[in-house]
Specification:
The complex is a heterodimer of chains A (481) and B (464). Chain A is an alpha+beta fold. Chain A has 18 helices and twelve strands. Chain A has three domains: 31 residues, no CATH class; 202 residues, Cytochrome Bc1 Complex, Chain A, domain 1 (2-Layer Sandwich); 202 residues, Cytochrome Bc1 Complex, Chain A, domain 1 (2-Layer Sandwich), CATH 3.30.830. Chain A is 43% helix and 17% strand. In chain A, the strands form two sheets. Chain A has a six-stranded mixed sheet, sandwiched between helices. Chain A has a six-stranded mixed sheet with strand order 9-10-8-11-7-12, sandwiched between helices. In chain A, helix 11 crosses helix 14, helix 13 packs parallel to helix 18 and helix 14 runs antiparallel to helix 16. Chain B is α+β, with helices and mostly antiparallel strands and 464 residues long. Chain B has two domains: 210 residues, Metalloenzyme, LuxS/M16 peptidase-like (Cytochrome Bc1 Complex, Chain A, domain 1), CATH 3.30.830; 155 residues, 2-Layer Sandwich (Cytochrome Bc1 Complex, Chain A, domain 1), CATH 3.30.830. Chain B contains 17 helices and twelve strands. Chain B has a six-stranded mixed sheet with strand order 1-2-6-3-5-4, sandwiched between helices. The longest helix of chain B is centred in the middle third of the chain and has 20 residues. Classes of the chains: A alpha+beta (481), B alpha+beta (464).
């Protein structure tokens, strides 16, 4: 093609390419390559039985790598088990289980686990707890034996309690320096009130009130097989691992039952209000905006997932596209629903440069009104949100850990065994009117709580001038000043 | 980092860990891969593995904050953000639409030495991902405008506020680097850069930086996951083959520094609890002493039987937490300890206690059992990392880019397991000398809470 004019058609094509892209081209880069055939969804299979002590047992085999993820999951958490005056008890008890058993002290436990290349994590969250580890296949029996010892024979040394308490008190002091931690204490407190477990925080007083007797009693009541699921995922054999687990947990006595998840009613709603927590000199204002939401069992779950994906679940969602990408007010904002057994919160927010706190609040409100109807949903938006949710699923079963938690979620939330197989259809079925309906129903524009932690001296007047909502000054515990 | 803060943790997990599988045969430490170079200089690494139906694509560029000029600090990272604003044939938004919008994910990360872009997509969008990455490698400037640069400039300033200026103790890293290295040393400034320099970056700077550093001869394309190698080679050639080679890059030779005396600083911050940092300059990824330094940090802090942790957090309970960390960059490294006191205990007391423990270790060396415990998680960490296509593609890319060998992780693994008590004793004596930086971060107005307050100079923050 070195002779210009020899073939006009080709010259014309070349010119076109030259205009579109200066580098040498043999194809049209402006055309999106077609996607291939979607990968087939392979949901792992599992067997479900129970142990002699009543704990349920799920085993899922995966043999491509010599790895095992072992977890005991407990139904119910701090919301069901902790008294308001003892907030922090479950967390301290969980840590105390690493402090030694009747035959191994804390150092012996630690050394043994280090040599096995693993660690045993004990956690109690709001509505559930867990105790588990991941290991290579060859270390699995030994690690399981240590876990059983920690579960059944904890020593709970009194000196360890004092050390853990003192460490937590320092951490609590440090949390009060951190704008994000302050927002996470104040926001639920205002949303749910101090009579609701969701609104109760760990305090210095509650930490100081915890005794060793409380810990012994909590352990006895909480870590029981009657509320537990044992799940083993990885390089194990379903039939032989059952006897391994049965033998290891042989001394774990029958007892306990699944809790009910009854919650007190929510406090009276209020007109939209800005609760301003002063953080003198802060370079950014931390925002938390929202209201109590529905439980995971709501039939609107799928519509809410699609709606939230459009609003604040992805990078190009409305909130982030506006507040970060268009306006540069923040490094990132998002939104979410804390789905569980109770009225988990709808929450949006992020860290906003102080000087744009007022402008950002206006934009947050604009987007919340927008998803509620003032800005129509486009076909492309709806398609992207659905594609994103549906096509993410096949890739989530990648690790023994992620498979384990995918299976456990079905158990804790009472979902059917074929949940993942049905997921794509459920999401596909969502229409624009569903999205609009759930946005209106679950984002309560007339009663929003708006927590802002920032430099009062520079942001209060502009926030007031913005006229979005009246301002109430609040201390770092969420009490009106 | 575009969306999340420092992902280098992933590498650290793969590098610093360890298991001596004495009783059973350890699984093979391998990632099957092939590697080749295109005529334009692009290094390609392919690691097919059909276990999970996703493909991870990593585009790794050998450029970072150390390549910046004084007066333009933070530029490499700001540039990373510009790479997400669209390119010649893929307007802004398309990249997200065909990654996150199809169930995948994308992000980028900048360090002192490298800038890495990566996406994980369902395997049927593999070709799309190559199209996206090749368009910004070849055609970024076709769609560049100053508006895009300005928008990202504001976002990066907010990233700085969120991760450093508005975080308690958030400036510690920047203060330590600027004190450990002389002012013009390429590792003396932070990756995020200063507000002033971020404001100064121009469109022309973006163009020059792109032309020099974002050429295929300065990049590695590493792909792991559910794809077929023959098909991948065809597509890689199609999308990347005609991007022109750039000018040769002359890299300055950067040498690690040594300090001949102790520098003591106190910085007043909006914190209620003081904290002590002690940092020694050590070595980077071009020096094998770093392996013994990794083992040393695990022996000193972390699990409850690590020496500093046991003594300060458990036995005397003078500290609420301690940490020790060997941080290795390409050319330099630092070894650092961090101590947060419990009420009633001073930083002066804690510094003396930590020094006594280090002195003992330097005199006696560690035991074989301590070494074994410190390296025993390595096998699990490596095998566990194989479950992530993204983790594998990044490990291979980093080996190819820094060590000129995608399979360098194997060498690294062997070297970690080969560390002896004598190695640890030797590196502790060689690097943990009197030449160091001691930084106290204290509540505002309470500089007397610093470690040895009368010997500590107030750190004066230059206007950022």
């Amino acid at each position: 093609m070195s002779q210009p004019g020899r073939n006009l058609a080709i010259v014309a094509v070349l010119l076109l390419f030259t205009i579109a892209a200066p580098a040498q081209q043999s194809f049209d880069r402006s055309k999106t390559p077609p996607a291939g055939k979607p990968p087939v969804l392979h949901v792992p299979t599992w067997t479900k039985t129970s142990l002699a002590n009543g704990a349920e047992l799920i085993v899922s085999e995966k043999h491509d790598l010599p790895l095992v993820a072992f977890v005991i999951t407990f139904q119910g958490g701090t919301y069901q088990t902790e008294a308001a005056a003892r907030r922090g008890l479950a967390g301290i008890t969980a840590s105390m289980m690493n402090e030694g058993t009747k035959t191994r002290d804390g150092e012996a436990l630690s050394n043994a686990l280090q040599l096995l290349g693993t660690s045993i994590n004990v956690n109690v969250g709001g509505e559930g707890g867990s105790m588990g580890f991941q290991s290579t296949t060859s270390k699995f029996p030994q690690a399981l034996e240590i876990l059983a010892d920690m579960l059944v024979n904890p020593a709970f040394p009194a000196e360890a309690l004092e050390r853990l308490r003192a460490q937590r008190l320092v951490a609590l002091t440090q949390a009060k320096d951190q704008p994000g931690s302050i927002a996470s204490r104040v926001f639920p407190k205002i949303l749910y009130g101090s009579a609701h477990p969701f609104g109760q925080n760990v305090t210095e007083e509650s930490l100081k009130a915890i005794t060793r007797d409380d810990i012994v009693a909590f352990h006895k009541v909480y870590f029981q097989p009657g509320r537990a699921l044992v799940s083993v995922v990885g390089d194990v054999n379903s039939s032989s691992v059952k006897s391994t687990v049965e033998k290891a947990l042989g001394a774990w006595p029958r007892g306990g039952e699944k809790p009910t998840f009854a919650y007190p009613g929510l406090p009276a709603t209020h007109a939209p209000t800005v609760f301003l927590v002063d953080k003198p000199g802060a370079a950014q204002s931390t925002f938390a905006i929202g209201n109590p939401g529905p439980p995971r069992s709501t039939p609107d779950y799928y519509a809410l997932q699609v709606m939230n994906t459009m609003l604040g679940g992805m990078f190009q969602s409305r909130l982030n596209a506006n507040i970060r990408e268009e306006n540069g007010y923040s490094y990132g904002v998002n939104s979410s629903f804390a789905f569980g057994k109770g009225p988990g919160a709808f929450r949006t927010g992020g860290d906003i440069v102080s000087a744009k706190s007022d402008a950002a609040l206006v934009e947050f409100m604009k987007e919340l009104r927008g998803i509620g109807g003032s800005r129509p949903i486009t076909d492309e938006e709806l398609a992207t949100a659905k594609d994103s949710l549906i096509q993410r699923l096949p890739g989530t079963f990648a690790s023994v850990q992620s498979i384990n938690s995918a299976i456990v979620t079905l158990w804790t939330q009472g979902l059917p065994d074929n949940y993942y197989q049905q997921y794509a259809t459920r999401i596909s079925d969502i229409r624009k009117e569903d999205v609009l309906r759930v946005a209106k129903q679950y984002i309560d524009l007339d009663h929003l709580t708006i927590v802002i932690v920032g430099d009062r001296a520079s942001i209060e007047a502009p926030l007031k001038a913005a006229g979005v909502a009246p301002i109430v000054l609040t201390d770092i515990e969420g009490n009106a000043r | 980092m575009r969306k999340h803060l420092y992902l280098w943790v992933l590498f650290v997990l793969l590098c610093v860990a360890g298991a001596v599988g004495l009783q059973s045969k350890p699984p093979a430490i391998k990632i099957p891969f092939e590697t080749y170079t295109l005529p334009n200089g692009l290094t390609v690494v392919l690691a097919p593995d059909a276990a999970t139906p996703t493909v991870a694509v990593t585009a790794w560029y050998h450029v970072g904050s150390k390549d910046e000029m004084p007066g333009r600090t933070g530029f490499a990272h700001l540039f990373e953000h510009v790479m997400f604003t669209g390119a010649g044939h893929t307007p802004y938004g398309v990249h997200d639409r065909f990654t996150e919008g199809v169930g995948g994910s994308n992000n980028g990360t900048t360090s002192n030495d490298r800038t890495v872009y990566f996406e994980t997509v369902p395997s049927n969008y593999f070709e799309t991902a190559l199209w996206l990455e090749s368009d910004r490698m070849g055609f970024l400037l076709d769609s560049l405008d100053v508006g895009k640069l300005n928008a990202q400039r504001d976002i990066v300033k907010n990233e700085r506020r969120q991760s450093m200026d508005n975080q308690p103790y958030g400036l510690a890293g920047e203060i330590l680097s600027s004190t450990t290295y002389p002012p013009s040393h390429p590792y003396s400034w932070s990756v995020i850069g200063s507000m002033k320099d971020l404001s100064a970056a121009s469109e022309e700077d973006v163009k020059n930086f792109f032309r020099l550093y974002y050429a295929p001869n300065n990049a590695v394309l590493s792909i792991a996951g559910d794809f077929e190698a023959t098909q991948a080679k065809m597509w890689v050639r199609k999308y990347f083959g005609d991007i022109p080679r750039g000018k040769p890059i002359k890299r300055p030779s950067i040498r690690p520094v040594t300090l001949d005396k102790e520098t003591r600083l106190v910085y007043e911050d909006r914190v209620q609890v003081p904290r002590l940092y002690i940092q020694w300059p050590t070595v980077g990824e071009n020096n094998d002493d770093r392996f013994a330094l990794y083992v040393l940090d695990a022996i000193m802090a972390g699990p409850r039987t690590a020496r500093l942790t046991k003594a300060l957090v458990y036995d005397t309970q003078a500290a609420s937490s301690v940490g020790a960390f060997q941080d290795s960059s390409e050319d330099v490294g630092d070894w650092r300890i961090t101590i947060t006191p419990r009420p009633g205990h001073s930083l002066t007391e804690l510094e003396a206690a930590a020094d006594a423990l280090l002195y003992k270790l330097k005199a006696e060396g560690p035991t074989q059992e301590e070494i074994q415990r410190a390296t025993a998680g390595q096998e699990f960490d490596f095998v566990s990392g194989l479950q992530s296509n993204l983790g594998k593609s990044m490990t291979l890319a980093d080996g190819a880019g820094i060590q000129n060998n995608p399979g360098y992780f194997q060498t690294e693994y062997q070297k970690m397991l080969g560390v002896t008590p004598a190695d640890v004793k030797r590196v502790a004596n060689k690097y943990l000398t009197k030449g160091r930086v001691v930084l106290s971060i204290v509540p505002i107005g309470q500089s007397d809470q610093a470690a040895k307050p009368s010997e500590s100079k107030p750190y004066r923050r230059v206007e950022q």
